[in-house]
Structures are given as C-alpha cells and as structure tokens.
Write a structure and sequence with these properties.
This protein has 724 residues and is of the alpha+beta class. Helices cover 21% and strands 30% of the residues. It has 16 helices and 37 strands. The protein has a nine-stranded antiparallel β-sheet with strand order 6-7-8-9-19-15-14-11-12. An eight-stranded parallel β-barrel has the order 20-21-22-25-26-27-28-29, surrounded by five helices. Strands 5, 10, 13, 16, 17 and 18 form a six-stranded antiparallel β-sheet that branches. Strand 26 (518-521), helix 10 (531-534) and strand 27 form a beta-alpha-beta unit. The structure holds alpha-D-galactopyranose. Alpha-D-galactopyranose is lined by residues 332, 362-363, 407, 474, 476, 522, 524-525, 541, 544.
C-alpha cells in the first residue's frame, strides 16, 4: 500500500510487516523519516528532527549548509552542502558540478513500469510511487520510483534523470538508493572473495568513517557483490533487525556505509561513479538500475526467505521457476580442451546409462581452439575435432535420450582469431597503448551496435544449426581499458555501462528468439552472479571450485541472497582441480544438492564404485529437486564460523516436508554428537526423522541429535516428513 498524507506531506509505503516513510519539508526537501516494523500512522514528521535544527533554512536562511549537514535527505545530492556520501552529481556545460533537488510532484499508480534499458523486477499486483524532484537551475528532473511488494516485505527503488533543459549536461554520479539510519544498526554484512572462493560472508562493525564494497572490473567480480545489509547488534539467524539492499546490475557498482559525526548511518548503492560519466542531451533520460530493498526483524534467515521468495516470483524467468531442469554433465573438468566427437559421445553414452539428462560441451569446440590462446570470436565449429559437424554430434547425443548444451564467450575476442584480424578496431583499448591481455583475450567494444549485431548473428547461426537446448554464457576477464574508438571524447565515461546494456540486449534477444533455451551465466566461475543476470538465466555457475568444503562457504554466501536453484552445483573430481582437497564422492553429491545438480568429471574414467553411486545420487536429487527449488531455506550452522561443521535445511511452504543437510568437516574424538536446533517446522505437528517421531516444537527447541559420523568431510542428508 502507498499513502500520501497531503496535510503532513508524508509518504508511507507499507508491506505486510514493514513501513517506509518519507516527508517533505517546508522548503521542499525530501527526507527519510522511518524504515522498520509496520506503523499505523503518518504522524511521524517529528522523526525527521527538523524541529531540532535551529538552522532550518526557513528559520535561519544563513545556515543552509549546516542544515544540509544534518538532514536525512532521501536522495542526497552533491555540490551544494551535503558533504556526506551522497547519490547524485551533475556537471553543467560550463564544467561546474552541483545540484539541489526539491519535490515537484508525485504519482501513485498500480501498474509498475519496467525499466526500458535494463532488467527490473516484474510487478504484478503491486503499487508504485514516483516522486519527481527537480533542479530548476540545471533543468534536471530526478524521478524516484518505489514499488511495494507487500507479501515479500520488499520495496524496489530506481532512479531516472531527465534533461528538461536546452543544453546537454553530464551525470557524474547517479546511485539508485540510500538509507538513513541512526542507532538501529551496528554491523555490516557483505560478500567477498576471489576466483575459486566467491561470496564468503563478512560481518564487520560500523565505525566512524566509510566502508565501501565495490567493483571497477566491468562486472561485479569474484571479489565483491552488489549487496549490503545493515544489522542490529543482536542480530542472528533467527532474530534481529536487518536492512538489506541488492542491486539489479551486472557491472561496476558501489555500496557504501558511512557513519557520520552525529553517529548517523547512511548506506547507499548504485553504479560506481568511478570511470562513469554520462552525457545527457536535451530531452534525454538516463535510468539507474533497480535496488531490491528490505527490512525484517527476523534475522538473516528472515532476510534470505524474503529475497528467495522475491527472486522466484519477480526476477527469475517465470518459465524456469518450477520447471525441472535437467541433470547435466559438463566436459570441462573431464577433458579441458582435449576432446573430439568420439570422446564426447563416449561420455554421453555412459552418462545417459547412469541417468544424466544433458551433455554440455564446454570451451574448445570452435575455430582452432585447443588452448585458451586463440579463436574467441570465431564461433564456427572446428570440424577437425567434431567430425561431420555440430548437428551430427547433437543428433548422436539426442539419440541417446540426452539433451545437448553448448558454451560461448560472446563478449571476447582472441588476438589470434579471424574476427580480430578482420576488425582490430573492435576491441576496448586506449589510444597509443598496447591493450592489456587477460587469459590471452581482449574485450569486444560492445558500445558499438554493429559489434553487438555481429556477435549475436554468430550465436544465432550456431543455435539454429542443431537441437541445442542450453547455453553456458561465459565472461572470462574483467574490463580494464574502458575506452572505445568511435565514441566522442565526452562520452568515453559511458563505455562500461554501455557494455552492460549490450550484454542485457544480447541476452534479451537470445531468450526472445529461443524461448525454450535454458541459459546459464558464468564468469570465470561466479564473477557475475547478480540479479541482473538472473533475470535472463535461472541459474549461474557458482564457482570454478566444486570442492564440497569450499562450496559450503561459497554456497552459504550465495544463498544468503539468491535462491538455491540459481546456483550451478556439480560433483567434480577428487583431488579437486582447484584446491587439491580429497573428499568422498558421497559428500560431493550431498553438497551439490543445494542447487542445480550436475557432474563435471569424466564418467568413463572414475572408479567403478563411484560410477555406480551416480544413479542413486540422481534419484536423491530428483526426490528433493522440487523442495529445494520452492521451499524455505534455513541456515543452521556455519563451517565458516565454527571451523568444524555445517548444516542447513529446506522446508516446504506447507511445512509438511523438509530436508536437512549436515557436513562434518573436521571430526572430533570422544565428544558429544551435535545437537541441531531445526527451524521453520510447525510447532504442533509431528514429524518422522530417521524412523523416530518428534513434535515440531521439540525439533526446533530441544533439537535433533545427529548420529555419529566417522572421519573428516563426511555428510548426511536427512529426510523430515510430517507424520500426519
Ligand atoms: C571458465 C568457466 C569454466 C569453463 C572455462 C572454459 O573458467 O568458469 O567453467 O567454462 O571458463 O574456458
């Protein structure tokens, strides 16, 4: 529900359990009043504290700058007195930066408008609010849009800048959202990592000064994630306040938390202003990406449930949310570049016998690619490797009853490729400098529409040539030199954002032209795991590291925000190719249940006893697939925190069924076995666990006592069923 109280000049946005409140001051500034548990009144202007300021501009005009220093501005602007981390700045044609935004008008409406240039959440059954702020001197209008998703306790926000003047101006910063809080929060939750170690959770104190998590790599990167949450001091899995923001964007982002000299905390998120400057011509508009924002008092598990429900209902491609995605086998770690049609068919034959449903042919099928040194951009089949061509191979795999999927890396080109030899100017490069290579590849200049069209044409042709039902879309290097040859000097700051928009355009075209195609995004593992990519692909390859113990931490961080079904989780070799850890085959499969299950090894070469375990593993996955795709996820214990064991569970929405996963990473001798307090069950219902009957309240309050496991890296998957 969205309310405007015109007497008090207060906007109130209500979800089922929360309220978000803004007020307009006498001077026309838009202030952030309150965010938290639902309140039933608009009598909240006092909480904006303007009465406390002797220096309110209408009372003491000489103190406007002091006012700017203290006022909880809803969408703070730069260059006219707000010295805090703010959200927007604009440079005029004279080169001067600064603006001042005041409320002009507003509009409350039922049909959410989607962003034109970027993915944004669907909005069936929602209410939205546009607040138009304006700067009359610049001729700039800034439209703040809020959409209320009542049942998920989520509010989305986005920002649009319109140039209503006769001159072009330059947007040098345009973030998507900001929150002003006081003593409600004391901690920051964010996600950090590296290649093969993505999205580990970090909890840190909010201290005076600024904390920033960000990327300037042209994608979110392995290192940081476009997510931030602020927590109350006592916040844990089950209870405590959480304020969270997740950006629907796949490029350079920044998320900042600043505690100022008054102890006030301001958190903001949006496109990174570093390497960004957008020229906005007269009459033109610029859209900043959407933010998914929430407050919950139900701790981090509560935040996770709200995000998961929201992603499933409003972000992921609807077609795939409840669909049964095939169990796949990917040949990357099985063969790397060393394969031909016969080898792939051998793998497929064995895989189909074991119950695997799709073969994915990874990197190395095109141009003359036998290593990562060449051929990106030459998206035509290497017939020396795949004799008789792609269709013949796909038909042979299909004849085994298996689907077929293929790998592309469309944003890149190798120096040793026909494409680069023909169009050396189609890459991002700085004038007069040797462009930097990474994995022996350049980034294509996707700010040029002819390059985008060319790349799309190549992909289209391959996909039309055979019965290809899945694409893995990879991006294996960051963008370093964000410079384009044909763009004019005053538009060079647009390059990285234009790259992201082009990727969205490509994936939009792909999913429109091939509506049944299952798209899995990837970026050297999980360097581009964000809501923008999930809008097109219902799953993303989570990490190049499939070691189940490392995966406990990667998946814990990823599932903090994103639903389990969105993570590509595969059973791979042991010793693990990324970190050398040796683990049991059963543990690898148990950990891979928490995602979109598959295999990443040579089934023709693994030990016979492991191969024979595969049909039962697939059966187990299929048994829980629906529950994992649709249920509520609860984190019980974290190996990252305790250094010994990990546990989580998924409970069906009707609370009749659950699955509990427990991994004993390090064994302890002669200790009590673990007692786990379960979550999410119905207190009064009886449940059967491992043959014994318990009340839901018993399992949740007294706990479930695990059977002893022997040895390191051992796991168990426990089924919980309602007895009635
Ligand atoms: C990236 C991906 C891998 C694989 C290779 C192929 O690293 O994450 O899964 O596709 O590229 O080059």
């Amino acid at each position: 529900m969205v309310i405007y109280d015109s007497n008090k000049r207060v906007f109130k946005l209500d979800t089922d359990n929360t309220s978000y409140v803004m007020g307009v001051t006498e001077e026309g500034y838009l202030g952030n009043i309150y965010y938290g548990k639902k309140v039933d009144t608009t009598d909240l202007v006092y909480a904006m504290r303007t009465g406390e300021y002797p220096f309110t501009p209408s009372v003491l005009p000489g103190e406007k700058i002091s006012f700017m220093d203290k006022f909880p501005m809803e969408y703070p602007f730069d260059g006219t007195g707000d010295f805090h981390a703010n959200c927007i700045n604009i440079r005029n044609s004279a080169g001067q930066e600064g603006l001042e935004l005041k409320v002009e008008s507003h509009n409350i409406y039922a049909e959410k408008r989607k962003l034109d240039s970027m993915p944004s959440a669907r909005g069936e059954g929602t209410m939205s609010l546009d607040i138009v702020l304006s700067d009359k001197v610049l001729g700039a209008e800034v439209i703040l849009t809020y959409t209320v998703y009542e049942e998920c306790d989520i509010i989305t926000r986005s920002v649009k800048v319109v140039n209503v003047s006769n001159n072009a101006f330059y947007i040098t910063k345009v973030l998507s959202a900001c929150l002003n809080l006081e003593t409600e929060v004391s901690d920051i939750l964010s996600l950090h990592g590296a290649w093969a170690r993505e999205r580990h959770i970090q909890r840190s104190r909010i201290n005076y000064g600024s904390y920033v998590t960000e990327s300037l790599r042209g994608e979110p990167g392995h290192q940081d994630s476009p997510f931030i949450a602020l927590l109350s001091e006592n916040c844990n899995n089950e209870a405590g306040d959480v304020y969270a923001m997740n950006l629907v964007y796949s490029g350079n982002f920044t998320a900042r938390v600043q505690k100022d000299h008054f102890g006030r905390v301001r958190a903001s998120i949006g496109i990174n202003p570093g390497r960004f400057c957008w020229k906005l011509g007269s009459g033109d508009a610029f859209e900043a990406p959407e933010v998914i924002m929430q407050y919950t008092c139900e701790g981090t598990n509560g935040m996770t449930r709200n995000f998961h429900d929201f992603f499933r209902k409003y972000i992921l491609p609807s077609k795939w949310v409840d669909a049964e995605k095939p169990v796949l086998i990917n040949n990357w770690e099985a063969t790397y570049f060393d394969f031909d049609d016969e080898k792939l068919v051998q793998i497929a034959e064995e895989a189909s016998r074991l119950g695997i449903e799709m073969l994915v042919m990874d990197d190395g099928w095109f141009g003359h690619r036998n290593s990562d040194n060449n051929s990106l951009g030459d998206w035509y089949v290497n017939e020396e490797k795949l004799k008789g061509g792609l269709k013949k191979l796909v038909d042979r795999v299909n004849a085994l009853g298996m689907k077929f999927g293929i790998w592309f890396e469309p944003e890149m080109v190798s120096p040793d490729s026909d494409l680069y030899r023909e169009h050396p100017d189609w890459i991002l490069a700085l004038d007069g400098r040797e462009p930097g290579l990474c994995r022996t590849q350049y980034v294509l200049d996707l700010s040029r529409q002819e390059v985008v069209d060319y790349v799309y044409g190549m992909i289209y042709k391959v996909l039309k040539s055979a019965n290809i039902e899945y694409v893995k879309w990879d991006m294996n290097r960051p963008i370093a030199e964000a410079a384009s040859l044909p763009l004019p000097a005053d538009r060079q700051g647009e390059v990285t954002h234009r790259h992201v928009l082009a990727v969205y355009q490509l994936q939009e075209r792909l999913t429109r032209d091939f509506p049944d195609l299952l798209l899995e995004n990837c970026s050297g593992g999980g360097a581009r795991f964000d809501a923008g990519m999930l809008y097109y692909s219902p799953q993303i390859w989570c990490s190049d590291n499939a070691d189940p113990i490392e995966r406990l931490m990667i998946q814990e961080g990823t599932h903090l925000v994103y639903p389990l079904s969105t993570t590509g989780t595969h059973v791979a070799d042991s010793p693990n190719h990324a970190n050398g850890r040796i683990t049991p085959f059963s543990t690898r499969a148990d950990v891979a249940l928490a995602g979109t299950f598959g295999y990443e090894l040579d089934v023709t070469r693994i030990a016979k006893e492991e191969r024979e375990m595969i049909p039962a593993q697939i059966e187990t996955y299929k048994k829980y697939r629906h529950l994992i795709q649709t249920g509520d996820y609860y984190r019980i214990a974290s190996f990252r925190e305790n250094g010994r064991y990990d546990s989580y569970m998924v409970v069906s929405k009707d609370k009749d069924k659950a699955v509990l996963v427990y991994v004993q990473v390090v064994t302890d001798s002669n200790v009590l076995t673990k007692k786990l307090k379960l979550y999410g069950l119905c207190p009064g219902k009886k449940y059967i666990v491992d043959g014994a009957e318990y009340l839901g309240s018993t399992l949740m309050n007294v706990g479930y006592i695990m059977k002893p496991l022997r040895g390191d890296c051992q796991s168990v998957v426990i089924e919980i069923n309602c007895a009635e």
